[in-house]
């Protein structure tokens, strides 16, 4: 059996340590000045030092640490293996009486020693800081060991990636760049591909959890998955990755021709992979760029794909050939274009059936319907719809959207849209999700959405139905514009108010739910417990103008005039006809400030009954600063000097305004 000394050479290791110890020293100083020194500076403030220590031991919350864990291993590995990138030094060192295995093993061990010592010393110091200064409860001793282990694991992973990059490239600069590319490639490439598919596939959900996305987040150490993940398998993955990188790098080192020092790519077999890899990445970037400036046009998307691929391929050829005269080699891109074209044809024509996929009613356990996707709710069955009528309504809505794909995709850019998310939890445990931007008119006049919204099952997803009334400490009602507010803490009144609010929510019609009318006030329900049926201490709701039960309760308890703007709070109101203005001119704030200068008929209202009608019917201004499709603007001038600005469509303006 061979002794350990036969795998390494002490003189090589000693020489590496003598030449490159300064990098380890710099790494140590970087760690010490962003950690222990900071704690000593704030040692008189126990809360601050506890906060800093807790933040420091989560390496991903401490930006400097993760940055150092990338920069120093790349710098060290690039410098130690610099000799193989220069023909003269490569020839000289490989003429020494050492096998390539001994050279490689010795340099690797030197890297590990230099990069580990600063972390180990800092670990000892942080251990003493934790024992001597930390008085909090969030950090335990195992977290200190975890920090040490994860820091080393990140350092080693980056180090071995850099060594691997150095074996396939003969230029130190390209080696460093490739190291960063390898480090971020899974995450960056996955993100680019998902965004591209979002532009191609109708209904695609780039935010959805997939195996590929999950792997991309866990495959590289610079995301916080390594710290958050409790599964031992991710640790095993990184250990296996280290061994793979080590043995592959060692194999390439032994096979590498010394004359390739200075070449951009040292192995001919890898050159096509490099060229097509660069072309693929730039193709995706080009497609996304031209799609964005071309207002999501399919033509500009594919034009961008083509231009991006050509550009990337030319750049890759220039890097390999070290010359700008590579245009005669563009024919090599042809196989890539053919394969990419076939792929996009399959996706665009939906030959895999992704866009038209609809689960059968009998296979659906529950459905998800909302304006945005929270996949965790689908997985945990939180707030899903289980009734047969809602399952059918969601599926019918989905089918209608699929059938109207052409209309939805070709709607004018300036047309108002509504974003919706649809999800199915199937009886076999699988999840299917889709997202769409549909015309607002399709959303507002949709019988299936009306059926869903008006169902009690959907309405009871409101968090007020999950609140334990006994855990409510008080309810505050705010009318911010006139500084009115009340606080109700009496238990009986709190219970009555919550019951009235629940009745109003259950009685709401679809038109009232989607109404843009400004609410009377904001309702803040504060809870004694952090749970309170939700994951926060305060529940925020609105006192809508359609809430008749709540309005009745406020009147009966003498709160009514304190929870809304009253006509008596207003000096007068002005309604301005803005039909002659172009949409781009309809900036609500500019119009409100310059009413006299804006062309159009103006009506001044001082009658209290008419002001009341205006207050009950105007549309909120905060939803959009531009009054697209709006016909009238209303400005209420309050006695306290403030203004309330709202607007009307042609079909919701009070009749007495039209009669002027």
From TrEMBL:
Tree of life domain: Bacteria
Transmembrane listed as a keyword: yes
Keyword list, A-Z: Membrane, Transmembrane, Transmembrane helix
Listed transmembrane segments: 20-42, 62-81, 102-127, 147-165, 177-197, 232-253, 273-293, 299-320, 332-354
Record's protein name: ABC-2 type transport system permease protein
Organism: Caminicella sporogenes DSM 14501
Classification lineage: Bacteria, Bacillati, Bacillota, Clostridia, Peptostreptococcales
